[in-house]
């Protein structure tokens, strides 16, 4: 089979290090009947070892040349291929208790993470390889320099753990950055949640839009409507000091005050 030329527009970097591949599969720990979807299977670095442990695997691939290679390599009853941009895929259509895995294209990794938020109720867990910088931002705690909108929005929905780093030379072609593996487990139905997801997202986005400013300035006219003392946040605090629960309380207060719409 001819060598596939990595396409820059798809952010393609193919994992080739057998030790790293083994470590990722071990972290995923597939069981034979798991319902699993791999995003961006590429040259099957993960696909092949996953199929050794699974009855069937769903894959989402945008590159038609790679789709053709997958169709030649695997029977349809073993690998179900969705030829599409992952950002357009209805992951809820695959079923329940979904396990989502993949080496996400770095140029659209954050949009994919936000797209998958809409399907978290269908997901059992997610294990991804991402740029290390992105993973560090995902798992950052309040007060960390990496803590921002990405951490707040994802930590409101998932319990996340950074598993290990992956060096650039584990790929062909090697990216200019170090990568990392992250595991994401959706929080249970009884988790704390905001009165309005939309209002929560708006509050977090506005708070971090000018992250170096104190919140009472960054939030503009919303600041006067926030019960600072009741939610345990000083108005002189900056967004990076505020916990997920406190952002939920802040957005709920803004909904109650009529500053933000309460619909989801």
UniProtKB/TrEMBL annotation:
GO MF terms, alphabetically ordered: 16S rRNA (adenine(1518)-N(6)/adenine(1519)-N(6))-dimethyltransferase activity; RNA binding
Species in which this protein is naturally found: Verticiella sediminum
Protein name: Ribosomal RNA small subunit methyltransferase A
Catalyzed chemical reaction(s): adenosine(1518)/adenosine(1519) in 16S rRNA + 4 S-adenosyl-L-methionine = N(6)-dimethyladenosine(1518)/N(6)-dimethyladenosine(1519) in 16S rRNA + 4 S-adenosyl-L-homocysteine + 4 H(+)
GO cellular component: cytosol
EC identifiers of the protein: 2.1.1.182
Ribosomal RNA adenine methylase transferase N-terminal domain sequence ranges: 20-188
Lineage start: Bacteria, Pseudomonadati, Pseudomonadota, Betaproteobacteria, Burkholderiales
Alphabetical list of Pfam families matching this protein: RrnaAD
Annotated S-adenosyl-L-methionine binding sites: 13, 15, 40, 61, 85, 103
Cellular compartment(s): Cytoplasm
Leader sequence residues: none
